Amino acid sequence: MSIQKKRALLSVFDKSGIAEFAGNLEKLGYEIVSTGGTLSYLRKEGINAVNISDITGFKECLDGRVKTLHPVVHAGILAMRANKEHMEQIEALGIAPIDVVAINLYPFKATISKENVELQEAIENIDIGGPTMLRAAAKNFQDVYVICDPQDYSTVIDELKAGSQSLGTKFNLMYKVYQHTAYYDTLIATYLRSKLNIEFPEQITFAYDKAQDMRYGENPHQSAAFYKEAFIVPGSLAAAEQLQGKELSYNNINDANGALDLLREFKEPCCVAVKHANPCGVGTATDIFDAYIKAHDCDPVSIFGGIVALNRSVDLKLAKKLAEIFLEIVIAPDFTQEALAYYAEKKKNVRLMKLPTVLAPLKPGTRDMKKVLGGLLIQDIDATLYDEADLKVVTKKQPTKEQLEALKFAFKVVKHTKSNAITVCDAEKTLGLGMGQPNRIDSARQALTRAGEGAKGAALASDAFFPFPDCVEEAAKFGISAIIQPGGSLKDQESIDKADELGIAMVFCGQRHFKH
């Protein structure tokens, strides 16, 4: 057998473009070698493809598990053409070099995405021969065109036709292979980790797909891109469909994510307005229009240029009201045709996002991650509010039923407000929000000042305990009637005593919600 024979090995699950690619290779004098379903497909398409078993002299076995794991295949791929000893060895062994390798892999991701997939089915869809051939061909990139993405078929054919094989192209194809196999193995490892309930492994990798490049990041001088998890979380922004408007920016995505996190706390009709990753207004009502009005009126200044997330559909009446101010994004489970037509005519740049499963509960084990320079912080997502059984009235004054409802509303909002956080609310809307201050009393003053007269009789929530009674004193100045906080300070009793002195009901819930 002459080692000068040009040979291409094609074995793909995704057969898009493969027949045309094989036909072009044949015209260029390549012998086409193939396997299984690809072989049958190519022959049906008129390609004179050779069975891999005819090349190896070894019939595939173990239900197809072993067919390409053979020295004839891997020596043909890995022999370095510029290495005289390599070429003499494969000549002596009667092995022809393989110059083009096109492989894509068993659909492991699609398999484990199915409901109630059995472990054995998932295992059978772990590709072995494919990744092995891809990695071998990529290692010998200077001599072998290796293709794992059908989009690259035309580039390879163009270069082969021109007789000018580019080392740059081959190096890029090499990179794509190792990126692809790393992604593939990450999917497998993630799946198996979930089966074993391993929370924090000694090493960890993640699989993400690029959703879009961005004009810039937080600021114009920063480049950025948005990646979606390989398995999209229902109810997350990654699952949303953009119906109109400009592309989402880095800040849009970050802010919208915060809006959805807070919106998920409510089942009744609710509107959440967010600006710079903090809520600036939250309202609930019996209908979504009134919920928006309440959210807007909490802080009609800050909502300008913000993001509005709703858990009910947007009709024409609400669309017209929303359009009265500038909003970056409106997220809702749906929009009526009349609402969409109105936006298309009047506010075509507003980003409308359709997210039908806004209220989907987070799956157990959902992780929250934060990148720091040189490392990664991973934790369970903050998916609970507090256990009702842990609520403890610590003051002489007992909260009324209405006050307890207002306290719960306020605590839902404070959970999603940057620490140190204080919220002033009634049972259906925010009245004043204070966030992100290095000390709690400044956050309290901020929230109470914004609430103004609305604070009289309202509820106040703190995301963490009071280290001093000063927040209670400040709350009393504005007429706050009830306070909820986690408790746990060494000086809790001082705050309790001050609340008793000032006639404020105080409830400890036992659960802190720092958000940094």
Describe this structure in words.
It is built from 18 helices and 21 strands. It is elongated, with a radius of gyration of 31 Å. It has three domains: 7-195, Rossmann fold; 241-354, AICAR transformylase, duplication domain (Cytidine Deaminase, domain 2); 388-508, Cytidine Deaminase, domain 2 (3-Layer(aba) Sandwich). The chain starts with 6 loop residues before the first strand and ends in an 8-residue tail after the last strand. The strands form five sheets. A six-stranded mixed beta sheet has the order 8-13-12-11-9-10. The protein has a six-stranded mixed beta sheet with strand order 16-21-20-19-17-18, sandwiched between helices. Strands 3-2-1-4-5 form a five-stranded parallel beta sheet, with helices on both faces. With 516 residues, it is α/β, with parallel strands linked by helices. Helices cover 37% and strands 19% of the residues.
